[in-house]
Design goal:
By secondary structure, this protein is mainly beta. About 5% of the residues lie in helices and about 45% in strands.
Amino acid sequence: MAKAKTLRGKDLMVFLDGKAQALATNCQLTITRETIDAKTKDDGQWNDADPGDMGWEISTDALVSADVDAESFDKLFDAMISGTPVQIVFGVPTNKSDSGVPDDGWKAPTAGCYTGALTITQLQLTGQKGDNAQYSMSGTGKGELKRVPKAA
């Protein structure tokens, strides 16, 4: 059997409402499961736990785009202020390229990805002398995060 191929971090992207976040430098998906204490006197000194509720979060860091129509801080700000969940797709674009952004933009994956509704819970905008302006966004999943398997 041949050695498994690695997935390059630069290829993972966050798409919000179908559009890739412009100038992203980092993205992260975190999935959690709470536990319910199930310890009884019969368990002795060892804890016991049953699986509980699940949750998920997405975060991304990016450079701030000066382009009016770019998916950047201002659009995230509007979504956060309105309190309206955004639809996310987390995965590798269908038109992945090592040559930079394709002329028609990155295309959200339709398989081999994760999808769900996200409530934006934190935005941070920073500007440091001698550097590009940057922002960070994080959000909490609203309901189920779905895994869309790769086609066989």
